[in-house]
Amino acid sequence: MRVVYVDNNATTKVAEEVVEVMVPYFTQSYGNPSSMHTFGGRIAKHIEEAREKVADFLGAIPSEIVFTSCGTESDNAAIMGTLECYPEKRHIITTRVEHPAVLTLCKNLQKRGYKITFLPVDNKGNLDLNLLREAITEDTAIVSIMYANNETGVVFSIDEIANIVKSRGVVFHTDAVQAVGKIDIDMKKNNVDFLSLSGHKLHAPKGIGVLYIRRGTKFRPFLKGGHQENGRRGGTENAPYIAGLGKAFELAKKHLKEEQGRVKAMRDRLEAGLISAIPNVKINGDTEKRLPNTTSLGFEFVEGEAILLMLDRLGICASSGSACTSGSLEPSHVLRAMGVPFTYAHGSIRFSLSHYNTDDDINYIIEHMPKVISKLRELSPFTQYSKMAV
Ligand code: PLP
After folding, report:
1. pTM (two decimals)
2. Which residue of 13, 208, 378, 385 is surrounded by the most CB atoms within 10 Å?
3. CB within 8 A of 286, min separation 6: which ones?
4. Kind of pairing, strands 194-198 and 209-213?
5. 81 in contact with ligand 1, CB cutoff 6 A
6. Please, what sign has the CA dihedral across residues 304, 310, 311, 312?
7. What digits encode the pLDDT tens for the residues 244-296?
8. Is 70 a catalytic residue?
9. Are 33 and 41 in contact (CB under 8 A)?
10. Alpha carbon of 177 to ligand 1 centroid (Å)
């Protein structure tokens, strides 16, 4: 069966060039980089080469790059590592639309006595920066605000946010898991203290991430153990994955312009094609400040899960904007925070592209999606809809 993979914000295909770089580390260069012998010790040099590639992509210095196991670990490390440095401060600011990697941690910290401000967003998914300004107090230990939203692709004004936070002397972390490799990020030009990223969103494998820590930023390791990563993250380095991540960044540098050109053009064509062929469709989120590969579309009067099942039968892999909570399909926390009307929120589908997608993939979706929606609307229990002309 044909597979059209448009779920790249969930995870991406590992680039073949990345796999090629990784393989020798499993069976040939398998030594421990901390070993005294040359066989292991030389791996350390390869890890440093990968670190340089990541740093080069981000406009960082290599010593600011700490390898972790995933985006979730990087997010947890930034927040917990900062709280440990400022034990007297008990306030954290974040947003209502963060990924669970930040949101669940903050809710957990709230139960442990921390005060958490969850900033709201408007109906386009944007923040009111005055609310951020008002929320910062003497007690604020860290502000953690994502770079780009995984569901809608909405991009926050991180440079401006970092300036606001830093002007008040507070630590700033951004979860850039969805932004890295898709939009320009230059750590030389911003005031961000911590930035998280994850390999599997940019054609490296699952299980490798990075926490960028600006030089001079106070930090205590989240994973306490050995002296690896300059004492900032215990645990034997995952050499194959680190080498693979280095290669993925080399490729990402090459593909960044394509992401903002060809990939964006495919996304725009997909969006326009579906909106013109299907009545009652709305784009969720700001269409200007958005990742070039993502669209979240609300199809009124249909269930997202039903759409996904029918798309699945056609080999189209996408995601819905719902979370299955205790048996009921609740719209996601992101769509709820944006106040997306429930008839649209329930039928929201996210398509997220990569440079592996082709024009044929887009044609295929545009050809089949209208039939899927009209079939589901015929069966829809929403009586209102039966009165509408399709
Ligand atoms: N942050 C965002 C915005 C994400 O989209 C994801 C994954 O979907 C994560 C964090 C978690 O990354 P990982 O799967 O590497 O733990």
Report:
1. 0.96
2. 208
3. 124, 125, 126, 152, 154
4. antiparallel
5. no
6. positive
7. 999 999 999 999 998 899 999 999 999 999 999 999 999 999 999 999 999 99
8. no
9. yes
10. 6
